[in-house]
Amino acid sequence: AQSVTQLDSQVPVFEEAPVELRCNYSSSVSVYLFWYVQYPNQGLQLLLKYLSGSTLVKGINGFEAEFNKSQTSFHLRKPSVHISDTAEYFCAVSLHSGGGADGLTFGKGTHLIIQP
Amino acid sequence: NAGVTQTPKFQVLKTGQSMTLQCAQDMNHEYMSWYRQDPGMGLRLIHYSVGAGITDQGEVPNGYNVSRSTTEDFPLRLLSAAPSQTSVYFCASSYEQGTEAFFGQGTRLTVV
Predict the structure, then answer these.
(1) CB under 8 Å to A54, separation ≥6 — which residues?
(2) Can the peptide bond before residue B8 be classed as cis, meaning omega within 30 degrees of 0?
(3) Do A99 and B94 touch (CB under 8 A)?
(4) Between chains, do B31 and A44 touch, taking CB under 8 Å as contact?
(5) I need a surface site. Which of A67, A107, B40, B100 has the fewest CB within 10 A?
(6) Residue of B32, B99, B105, B107 to mutate, testing the A interface (most A Cβ within 10 Å of its Cβ)
(7) Confidence band (pLDDT; 50, 70, 90) for A105?
């Protein structure tokens, strides 16, 4: 079975500073990788995904992530954060047999707090 | 295009009561699933469906039933509510394997 570890439960960052949210996964088979964002009292929205190809993937709102197979990591980055980026961020994996709603394994989430 | 619609948004139940959380999608997605979100636990898969008439268990299925009679609807039934089922429940759907999962706005359930 696969698992996801988000190493930081909370990350405080000053506005306009860069940020990295860390995600490591474990799986004995190839996986698809996702980052989702959850704003307060809302559902989850896809930020970006890695299915295959280039290991650097770009998403919405200026976020990007890099897949590192040797380190089994998929860290999320943004060069300059805005107050509106305050939210909960979830890393998720699925087996190559599914990447949609039939089986995502989520990390426990990282709360990104933007300080003015 | 409404996407994934969950009802109700909030619900309070007494221990032992039963209820159904509704989920409907209008995107003609084959794949649908239910997750529960608890503080510090992330989202955990309860049940999922790969098409009408086909369902399977996820990580935490005990105490919940599902059925999928149509492509559009995927209700989640709590048979006998327990305080441990107090949580936020999310329904999700996707067109096919490997594509984006679309989430509903969630149902906040409290069992007293």
Answers:
(1) none
(2) yes
(3) yes
(4) no
(5) B40
(6) B99
(7) confident
